[in-house]
Amino acid sequence: MLENVSKALKGALLTCVAVGVAGSGFAQSLEEVKTQRGLTDKDILAAAKTYTPSGMKDEYYVFSSGGQAGQVIVYGVPSMRILKYIGVFTPEPWQGWGFDKHSKDILAQGKIRGKEITWGDTHHPGLSETKGDYDGQYLFINDKANPRVAVIDLKTFETTQIVVNPIFKSEHGSTIVTPNTEYVIEVAQYAAPFEDKYVPLEDYNDKYRGGVTYWKFDRKKGKIDIKRSFTVELPPYMQDVTDAGKGPSYGWSFTNTVNSERYQGGFGNGNVPEFSKRLPNEAGMSAKDTDYMTIVNWKAAEKLFQQGKYKKINDHAVISMDDMVKANALFLVPEPKSPHGNDVSPDGTHIIVAGKLDTHASVYSWTKMKNMIDSKDFASTDPYGLPILDLKRSLARQVNLGLGPLHTQYGKGDSVYTSLYVESSIVHWNYKTGKVLEKMPINYNVGHLVTAEGDTVDPDGKYLISLNKLAIDRFLGVGPLHPQNHQLIDIKKGQPMQLLYDMPLPLGEPHYAQMIKADKLKPIVRYKKKSFKHRVRPGREKVVRNGNNVTIYSTAIRSHYSPEVIKVKVGDKITWHMSNVERAQDQTHGFTVDGLNIHGSLEPGETSTFEFVVDKEGVYPFYCTEFCSALHLEMTGYLLVEP
Amino acid sequence: MKSIFTKVVLTIGLASLVMSGSAMAYTKADYEKKVKTNEFYVGVVAAVINGLCPKLVVDASVCNPKDPVGTAVGIQNVMLHGEEDIDDVDEDLIEQSVHNIDAAFQFYDAVEQFKGFLGQKADNAKYAAAGDWKNATIGEEQAWQYIVKTASRSAFAADMLGDTKTSKMIRDLAADY
């Protein structure tokens, strides 16, 4: 019978081949492929610039927010091959993130006022820096909806800490770092009372607040030091994107604001009649021609914190606006309304602001602003007493770019690239001369941009990725919810911008990204077994009972667990330590006990711990969920639960 | 050409035909058949160890073609630098003593499987001496599992070293048998 089946398969295969030859034909040359697929020379060039043959590695890593997935997306450039989704604020089953004790404990750090949050809105990843250059050691990522910041160790590509902002109710323009990663900056978005209590909207101006939190990063420990962190109180404007000064502007940070009108809409028949006749927020919050860039001297704020000049709110240090103003450490300068981009130049001398509702990019001169600050030469003050610098005298120039400038990234030399959201274009211009060099259409509605090392003191140029909000007609349909589209563009100096590749991203809105030279990262391939407290050595496996607490010490190696049969009783509290005793690269074992919502990914050298109570008698198979070896199927065992 | 994986798949297929390993009756002939298989495989693995050794370690004096077991353990010892636990050894130090650290770690794990093979074989001999053909036969099957994994990890090491000859020797294992 087997022989007959084999003959039938061979026949089917030959038929397929024959049909293939007669139909599309086997293309033998590049020209034939071009003709068959309708490709142009330009397409072939783009393919040659991105195609990465088996074994060849990419030049850059991109770390992109994973949007509503609460994760981070990692991919390579120029291939645009996705390398990993890093579990951060939400469970990620493949990695066992959120299914073993260690990751559950880290996720539990992210509880908001005691409540478990099972989603996240990751927005702005920030790579750690040394002297203003990416150093490849850590990545930080924020959660806009549930104001939290996470630390990811780039040796393991795993989240190691989640810190909740105890006073913000939302945030956005995080997690930009200061040039030596002294601080990770987190900025409020929607103003709210710092305290966790009800305050009517009528008290908005007096009791709602914005702020900038400076999370102290302890590089030695690889952790944020919560006790050495503080927030600078700000007016109830909506803070947005932030950048840290460098070079001559080192020690300062710059933050956009929206809604300096402090407008509150209401629009529509709800159950608050006094607000229902008000026009929508979108109108009232953009009524003025300008909002404010907030300028904070974080070095001075640090000094105030060290001097104890703060009050504690929710056990977190808050430095008041008054104290900041008295210390000459907090200023405003008008900027085009409803801005989003706010980007310090590599040499720290200029800041480019892109106002979404203005056709211009505004290039601020730090030298001019600093002179006004030093000579206390202010145009006015805002309702909270914050000194306001004169707009015109702060500007180096304004450049008319097009419809909806949103975000600027730096290229090589004086080249900059600004996204035009409304116009769906990228514009290449010179920020020192104001000359517009080139404009390129993209598909569709570009938000942020990322250039190679574009946020550092030494951008590489070379590649730009347009982080498009819409894909519309670019890919095969997958229902009404389309993937997002990252478009790779070649920006090598001396040539026109060339679109190279469209990459669909089907995880969430990948809001912002950073691109780092691959050789700066030194990821490990195996864990140090000794670093795990509950490591189990081969031959020392055991099951220990203490009352109704049962601790299982077991190991995994191709292709068996040890022990393979374990007997417990209903109601026993199980603590199961599992060590992967392999060392070879990529020899990962999975682990699950059926029906108990347990899953682990045990990478070489790793020990994971699983805690659970079995509340029903029965037979529970457990098995390796990775195809680890030919006898992967046999890598199994039974947890027997007696009544 | 049959590959080593063909053999594994066939083994799985045959295993699925029986109800349960522990419910089967085994004979001396079953045991001896598996012993013969393992003798063949261990012969190839010995050749693999001897082939890989000089390409793996900087100090080739540890390579002794007459003693493949000693050679395999010797390669681990080179990597251990006097420590009992490979975790205690700085990877930079390991890197200095081997030609390719990734290949070396593949081989380290291959030797761990090989040790499993040797230990299992010793147990099997005791079972056989006691006429316990069931445990002796299943034990030889487990020994075969260890030796196959030794071979597959060694194949990875060979590939990483660009040692096509050894790699082919491992991949031709089933066909040759």
From TrEMBL, chain A:
Sequence ranges assigned to domain Cytochrome oxidase subunit II copper A binding in this UniProt record: 547-643
Keywords (A to Z) from UniProt: Copper, Metal-binding, Periplasm
MF terms in GO: copper ion binding; cytochrome-c oxidase activity
Entry's localization field: Periplasm
Domain of life: Bacteria
Xref: Gene3D superfamilies: Cupredoxins - blue copper proteins, YVTN repeat-like/Quinoprotein amine dehydrogenase
Pfam entry (one): Cupredoxin_1
Keyword Oxidoreductase on entry: no
GO cellular component: membrane; periplasmic space
NCBIfam families: nitrous_NosZ_Gp
Protein's recorded name: Cytochrome C
High-level lineage: Bacteria, Deltaproteobacteria, SAR324 cluster
Automatic annotation (TrEMBL), chain B:
The protein's name: Uncharacterized protein
Signal sequence extent: 1-25
Assigned keywords, A-Z: Signal
